[in-house]
User: What shape does this take?
Amino acid sequence: MRHKLLAMCLLASFAAVPGCSRESSAERQAKMMTGGGNPHVGRGLIRKYGCEACHTIRGVPGARGLVGPPLDGIGNRYVIAGELTNTPSNLMHWIQHPHDVEPHTMMPEMGVTEQDSRDIAAYLYTLR
Assistant: This one.
């Protein structure tokens, strides 16, 4: 029993050491930028909301759409939708309410929640 407890404590301590977790520095940075967005959850939400139908998105199976722009490198872009400075709050707003930003955009209002937009933005910010 003592050996099992010791092994569990060692595993827990290794998980707390920087560089020992599975989370990359890009993922940690994206979480901080978006106020706690989860890039792993965001990747799945991209499929839930059908973003892959219009966009090519690295890391998202089937995301080879050609209607909207490819989203690779969005974390390094200066502007979102040709209208907004690329900040986490602007990206989340664009994801939730694209017609508020550009009334004639083809990007549909998908009913994305605030938390879902935070998670999606966190994933997109890992694409540098």
The two ends are 46 Å apart (CA to CA). The helical segments are 2-16, 25-33, 39-48, 88-96, 98-101, 114-124. The beta strands are 79-80, 84-85.
